[in-house]
Amino acid sequence: MAFDEQRYTREVLEPAREAGGLPPEDLRVRYQLSEAMTAAQVADTVRQVRQCWRRARGMLKYKRLADRLEADHARFSPIFSAAAEGDLTPLREALGDSERRAARRLAGAGGRLEDAAGRLRMLSPALLSTIARSSGVSQEEAVRLAAERSIEVREPDALPDAAPYPGFAKVREALEVLGAPHLGRFLFGDRCAEMRVLGGFAVEGGGSVPDAIAEVGRHWAARTRGPWTISADTVLAALRNSPDPAALIRYDIVARLRERVREHPYDDTLLRHATTELDLDAGDARRLIFAVRGEGGLGGGAATRLRELVDAGEIHAAADFAEALEPGALAGEAAELATEVRARLAQAVRLRDRARAALDSDDAWLALRDALQRVPDLPGATELLARLAPHPARAVRAAVQGEGVSLVWQPSPSRAGRIVYDVYRDGILLATADRPSARDDGPPVNTPVTYWVVARRDEAVAMPALAASVVVRPEPADLRLTAGDGVVSGRWTRPAEATRVIVTRDGRPVPAGDTGFRDRDVANGTSYSYTVCAVYADPDGEVVTPGVRRTMTPLGRPRPVADFTLRPDPSAPGTFLVHYEELATGALEIVGLDATPPWPMGTTLSLAELRAATRAIPTAPTRDGQSIRPGGGQGVLLAVTVSGELATVGAHIEHVNLAPPARLTAQRRGVTVYVGFVWPPDVPEVEVRWNGRSMIVNSAAYRAQGGVRLDVPEGEPVTVEVAPTSMVRGERVRGAAVSLRLPGRVPVRYDLSQQGPAWRRSLVVEVTADRPVRLRRLALVLKPGHVQPKSADDGILLDDWNDLEIPARLVVAAPRQAKPYWLRCFAEGAVEVARARGSYGDTPATGFHPVHGPGPSFGAGGFGDDEPGPAFADGDASVFAGPGGEVTLIDPPVRRMKVG
Fold it and tell me: CA-to-CA distance for 477 and 540, rounded, in angstroms?
């Protein structure tokens, strides 16, 4: 059958255009195919159909549809190519798929019609057309689908916009007083069930409206006068004075239904409300709800339409609509909306006229923006806005950076609206930027390129601002130069567009290949400047790039470090000072490994290989060398001599980072020396050495005993050394030690006694020592009361002796003092006290002798724990420094003497 273009336009293109520009899914319809066609007929028909599309594209109404058909044809092109070659199988499969897609499209459209109709089963023609267009079906198909689903397509009934009676508000108030739900129930009572208000008012078995008014009037006239009869008279007066009482009843029903629709209930709820509470017939109830829904649930009529247009931003359309209405239609809310619309339109027109007369585009743009904010659909404003271009960008500069081009420019002076910049390269849009800068990462190489920048505000564009042409010629990439022993070598990646690479040393050419060079004509210790350039072909010859410059100094093979030592830095815990012989060339680096180095001493390797196989140790230069911080744990420290890019392996040592103890203290308590310190972190044990002896102490024992106790005779000086230690591979490793020296002490003891008769008593002070010693001064002090004296000034001085040689026996007259009182001896000078009876701390050396009770008695008491520090074992000595060296002044033991 010959192809009929008119029929194709009538049956395919026109329905598809009405369906929103969606072509039919069924390929039989789209390409006018049939099952009886041969491969040649299919190819010929498809060709004619596509020619029809091209001709239809010349008509504006079919242009978008034709573009869509051609775009879709790209998906089916392989199928028709196979059919042209005689294989119809893919086409038959595609036809089946298209039938199924067409069926799904119809089913989807039917479902949307079902959803839109809802429980009312009604649709407006406009909504039906909208669903048909968006679903891609024709109007006839949509009508057929609606009929199959019992959906009634009709225009909503016209409903009254205003009350036919001016005093309707009073009528509503009166009905509320009477308890009547609406005017129909007031007139007909329970007989108004299934009341009809559309197409003429009717109540089955209720008679006419005038007869009902007369009957109700007689009923209320017979009632006793009161507030209810006044309300009934108000309602009856409205019905009698209304030109059409039925229209008043209908308006009352519609007004109440509109109020309920504003609450956005479901259709089921509205139907129940209309049939039970408003007593409407089921058919009238559906039609009224459908009509009110079509109004948007508002007042209806002109006000509804005006509100819809205003909310949609169509102010100009709203003004045209208001002008087209009858003068009586603009009342109430509609009149207010019309006034607002006219005022906004007038102001927008004034702003548009001002924009047209403005000389500056920015001022015109601001005026038009304000006009469009008031009236978005203002005629001519959008087109005028598109012509208000901003001021152009200025001073565009293009610079080659690496393999790309960087562009900067001065921004447009325009400050109205949002200005963006379109960057073009040789007429092709490259990027859009908000800021006055951009970068082209992929420009053509060895070809002149031109860039320009166009300032744009919305759709309005300014004149382009051009930059000078540039040529991108990249330098050799990944350049790596290495200096060795009497040689400098280099590697690089030659740019693909470059013809060759040349290398110069201090201006002299060096033989080089495409990827590297090796220069042996150099002397160690001399610095050379190398330049690596790329060469590009040019119509006028060759162009050499400026090149990449590197300064290299070849050095001889570095000598290894034969030995080095570590010494802890006392001023910085965890830091060690490295000691080694000064190197003639190169620099020493200490690197860390987890095991023995894999290279023998003296091996020279590249610095990169060394860095990859070792870990860096933090270092700092010092006056005598350098200091390092190896960190925690154990490992191997390797000395490496670095010279240029070469490194020579030297000696290594196994190192365990054992932090030394801090704040070492030592105190004598008689023959016991108490040692304390801050236990070092991550150290399991410490080794304590003193006077040729040593012992291992772990942290648990140290904390349990509150320190370390050493037995040392008082007269023997002692040096205490504490070092961290640990077992490594079965051997004990010892870290840096801290030490403290205490001199020997000479114990000096004194005792108090009394002699002589009761009327002439004397106090005897006997001072003894293990060896002769001289005291600078000894004072005997008395203090009344129960509180012992604390110093030579804390009481009454009974007597004192200067430059006293020990041993000595001193006699003093007994004091005439009421009991109780204390007697104590004090030595002059700064001393260190180890108190008797569990005392501790540093105080002046003292002796004490309490006196209690009615008779004279002597004894010694203990001190309280009134001084800070760790509590060691009991002691009985007070230490002070005398002219003969350190001595210990020991208080007498407690004892009681009975005096007759």
Answer: 25
**596 burial via Cβ count (<10 Å: 0-12, 13-18, 19+):** exposed
**Measured distance CA(421)–CA(309) in Å, rounded:** 36
* Maximum C-alpha span of the chain: 164
CA-based nearest residue to 679, from 733, 741, 742, 738: 738
Residues 6+ apart with CB under 8 A from 535: 498, 499, 500, 501, 502, 542, 543, 544, 545
From the centroid of its chain, how far is CA 509?
55
Q: Which two tokens stand for residue 533?
A: 């350039």
Cα gap 326→322, rounded to integer Å? 9
Residues 6+ apart with CB under 8 A from 730: none
587 contacts 641 by C-beta, under 8 angstroms: yes
Give pairs for 725-729: CB < 8 Å, separation 24+. Answer: 725/658, 725/683, 725/685, 725/686, 725/687, 725/696, 726/656, 726/658, 726/683, 726/684, 726/685, 728/634, 728/654, 728/656
Calculate the alpha carbon distances from 560 to 483, 557, 590, 615 in Å. Answer: 19, 9, 12, 19
Lookup: tokens for 215: 């009957």
Number of neighbouring beta carbons within 10 Å of residue 756: 13
User: In DSSP terms, which residues pair with 545 in a beta bridge?
Assistant: none
The whole-angstrom separation of Cα 818 and Cα 798 is 15
Would you state the pLDDT for residue 380?
81
Are the C-beta atoms of 500 and 537 separated by less than 8 Å? no
State what percent of residues in the chain have pLDDT above 70: 89
Closest-CA residue to 526 (of 552, 559, 563, 496): 552
H helix or E strand, kind and range, residue 838: none
Q: Which residues, including other chains, have CB under 8 Å from residue 613's CB and lie 6 or more apart?
A: 593, 598
Residues 6+ apart with CB under 8 A from 313: 376, 377
Contacts of 244 (CB under 8 A, 6+ apart): 164
- Eight-class DSSP state of 58: T
- Long-range contact list for 504-512, CB < 8 A, 24+ apart? 504/530, 504/531, 504/533, 504/547, 505/529, 505/530
Cα 319 → chain centroid: 50
Average confidence score pLDDT of the chain:
80
Element (H, E) at 891: none
Contact 416, 362 (CB under 8 A): yes
Tokens representing residue 448 in the block: 């002149």
Taking the C-alpha atoms of residue 824 and residue 847, their distance in angstroms, rounded to an integer, is 5
89 phi and psi angles, rounded to 5 deg? -60, -50
Distance between CA atoms of residues 308 and 334, nearest Å = 12
CB 457 within 8 A of CB 415: no
pLDDT at residue 424 tops 90: yes
Question: How many Cα atoms are found within 13 Å in the side-chain-facing hemisphere of 539?
Answer: 2
DSSP string, 717-762: -EEEEEEEEEEETTEEEE---EEEEE---EEEEEEEEEES-GGG-E
Q: How far is Cα 5 from Cα 45, in angstroms, rounded to an integer?
A: 11
Amino acid identity at 487: V
Q: In the numeric block, which tokens belong to residue 430?
A: 């490259």
Q: Which pLDDT value is given to residue 708?
A: 92
Q: Are 367 and 337 in contact (CB under 8 A)?
A: no
Q: Which of 81-95, 560-574, 836-850 has the least mean pLDDT? A: 836-850
pLDDT digits (tens, 9 = 90+) for 622-659: 877 788 887 766 778 888 888 777 888 888 887 777 77
Q: Pick the more confident residue, 869 or 695.
A: 695
pTM beyond cutoff 0.70:
no
Nearest to 388 by CA among 409, 366, 365: 365
Q: What is the rounded CA–CA span in Å between residue 304 and residue 777?
A: 118
Asked whether the beta carbons of 770 and 794 are under 8 A apart, the reply is no
